[in-house]
């Protein structure tokens, strides 16, 4: 438990918007290298707000966030270490699949030939090598999300931030992508921070879950998921899996009860 | 006695054998083109009949045949006039497109510039160009230059307002994506804002291309010169003084055809630019 491998630290972070809405209050959490950590909570619990702060999109009004011992904004400006996957795939509609994946490399100004090789590698990883010339509007929701993940991986990040990436997908596509994401996470030795409101998704993917409660958004509990990786879909029928789901649901409920009473 | 029923069954067979492709073409023709064609024929027929029935003189309301006759007779006057108007309006349009887009990008690249200048761009847009045309003539002298400037002025503002709107309509998430990759201001401009603005720019170009013809014709009213250098607007003023009504109609129709062709041309260009990705172009593709 050395501090050396701490990659993100939320230090009593608070966020109050100018209208007076408190999005996040006294949020304290330390993320270790190589973790798959999910922020699980109802809407309005500030989970996205917390994730966005790690990427330097939005600043804390109280406390501070540090990423790899630096300020998030500095990290974004100086390194490729942080990649962000948005809820909708957020692809540029005028670029085809390959060019969308090349975008981060273009913006960072890399060698063109190497960039293309990298792009092809990550596209192969997400199984889209045969759709290089397709435009986003020709792709299904799942394929768009794959391109989006490939784009995030292109710049070889050390940390992947995902804001409800599978929220808009159908269940079957979601399960496939969850499996693929776990594979990629293990292959690339990344830290993944994953925002979701889906308990099953959180338990299936994560090595640790941060359960959050709403209004004001704060951390309600941390749950370690001691299920071995690689996880197959059959894990879902495992009694331990069910116990974790019950536990996480309990924590979610108690935190929302508290909200209603308060 | 049985021949009629036999005939009927034969017809049925024939219509069934008819190739489905031919039938499809006929169906689209019937559904899409037949109506307008019939309406057009009825319109021309009425136009031909009414002056005869009411006994109107050809200088009040010429018949279509009079217009055709005038077109053929004065073709040597009409055709050069059309060519001159084409050159004037295309020049005016191209200048307004280039200058309009360039200035928009410049304005959009600096919040201060945009905030200080954009309100005036809107106010200027509401000034009727006809009202300032004489000033343009004083500055540039009668003839080609003044006409192009008037055509430019009329086509310029739709492009500016559309382009600026487009450049500022970038999706928030995409903007954040560029922030995450530490994109420079100009990277953001070239790789995000301009492509995102393209549908808006194209809409602006479509508006301004027809306006540029209006501008050229209005320009010729006030700044047109004769001696074989006059365009449609000049030809119209001359024909109006001489009460050559059929020829006036010919000029008007020529201007309309010009406007439609120009619009179709710019629409085609827009379609080619956007077809791979934009929804407005997708529908045409289907």
Automatic annotation (TrEMBL), chain A:
Gene3D superfamilies registered for this protein in UniProt: P-loop containing nucleotide triphosphate hydrolases
ABC transporter domain location: 8-235
UniProt keyword annotation of Lipid biosynthesis present: no
A Pfam family the protein falls into: ABC_tran
Alphabetical list of InterPro entries matching this protein: AAA+_ATPase, ABC_transporter-like_ATP-bd, ABC_transporter-like_CS, ABC_transporter_ATP-bind, P-loop_NTPase
Keyword field contains Transport: yes
Keywords: ATP-binding, Nucleotide-binding, Translocase, Transport
Cross-referenced SMART domains: AAA
Gene Ontology MF annotations: ATP binding
Listed name of the protein: NitT/TauT family transport system ATP-binding protein
Species whose genome carries this gene: Aquibacillus albus
From TrEMBL, chain B:
TM spans (from-to): 32-54, 84-108, 120-140, 146-167, 196-218, 247-274
Location(s), subcellular: Cell membrane
Chief location bin: membrane
A Pfam short name: BPD_transp_1
Residues covered by the ABC transmembrane type-1 domain: 82-270
The UniProt record lists the keyword Transmembrane helix: yes
Record InterPro entries: MetI-like (IPR000515), MetI-like_sf (IPR035906)
This protein's UniProt keywords: Cell membrane, Membrane, Transmembrane, Transmembrane helix, Transport
Membrane-topology descriptor: Multi-pass membrane protein
Membership in a protein family: Belongs to the binding-protein-dependent transport system permease family.
Protein name: NitT/TauT family transport system permease protein
């Amino acid at each position: 438990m050395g501090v050396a491998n701490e990659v993100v630290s939320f230090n009593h972070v608070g966020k109050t918007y100018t209208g007076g809405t408190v999005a996040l209050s006294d949020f304290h959490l330390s993320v270790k290298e190589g973790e798959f950590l999910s922020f699980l909570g109802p809407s309005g619990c500030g989970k996205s707000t917390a994730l966005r702060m790690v990427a330097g999109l939005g600043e804390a009004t109280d406390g501070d966030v540090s990423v790899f011992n630096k300020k998030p904004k500095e990290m974004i400006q100086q390194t490729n270490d942080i990649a962000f996957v948005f809820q909708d795939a957020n692809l540029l509609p005028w670029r085809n699949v390959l060019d969308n994946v090349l975008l981060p490399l273009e913006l960072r100004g890399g060698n063109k030939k190497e960039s293309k090789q990298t792009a092809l590698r990550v596209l192969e990883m997400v199984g889209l090598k045969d759709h290089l010339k397709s435009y986003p509007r020709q792709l299904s929701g799942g394929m768009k999300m794959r391109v989006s993940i490939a784009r995030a991986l292109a710049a070889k990040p050390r940390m992947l931030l995902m804001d409800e990436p599978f929220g808009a997908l159908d269940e079957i596509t979601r399960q496939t992508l969850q499996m693929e994401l776990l594979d990629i996470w293990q292959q690339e030795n990344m830290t993944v921070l994953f925002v979701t409101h889906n308990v099953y998704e959180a338990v299936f993917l994560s090595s640790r879950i941060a359960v959050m409660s709403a209004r004001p958004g704060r951390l309600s509990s941390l749950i370690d998921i001691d299920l071995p990786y690689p996880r197959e879909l059959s894990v879902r029928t495992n009694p331990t899996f069910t116990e974790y789901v019950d536990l996480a649901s309990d924590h979610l409920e108690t935190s929302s009860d508290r909200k209603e009473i308060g | 006695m049985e021949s009629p029923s036999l005939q009927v069954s034969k017809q049925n067979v024939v219509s069934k054998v008819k190739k489905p492709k031919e039938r499809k073409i006929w169906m689209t023709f019937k559904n899409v083109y037949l109506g307008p064609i019939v309406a057009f024929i009825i319109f021309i027929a009425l136009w031909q009949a009414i002056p005869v029935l009411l006994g109107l003189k050809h200088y009040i309301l010429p018949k279509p045949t009079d217009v055709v006759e005038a077109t053929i007779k004065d073709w040597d006057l009409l055709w050069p006039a059309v060519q001159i108007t084409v050159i004037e309006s295309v020049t005016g349009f191209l200048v307004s497109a280039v200058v309009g887009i360039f200035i928009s990008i410049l304005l959009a690249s600096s919040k201060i510039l945009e905030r200080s200048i954009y309100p005036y761009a809107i106010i200027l847009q509401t000034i009727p160009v006809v009202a300032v045309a004489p000033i343009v003539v004083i500055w540039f002298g009668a003839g080609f230059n003044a006409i192009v400037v008037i055509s430019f002025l009329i086509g310029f503002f739709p492009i500016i307002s559309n382009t600026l709107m487009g450049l500022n309509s970038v999706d928030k998430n995409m903007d954040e994506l560029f922030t995450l990759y530490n994109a420079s201001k100009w990277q953001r401009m070239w790789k995000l804002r301009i492509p995102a603005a393209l549908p808006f720019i194209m809409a602006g170009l479509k508006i301004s291309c027809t306006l540029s013809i209006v501008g050229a014709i209005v320009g010729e009213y006030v700044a047109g010169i004769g001696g074989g250098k006059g365009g449609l607007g000049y030809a119209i003023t001359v024909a109006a003084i001489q009460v050559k009504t059929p020829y006036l109609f010919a000029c008007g129709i020529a201007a309309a055809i010009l406007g439609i062709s120009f619009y179709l041309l710019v629409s085609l260009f827009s379609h080619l630019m956007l077809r791979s990705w934009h929804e407005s172009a997708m529908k045409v593709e289907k």
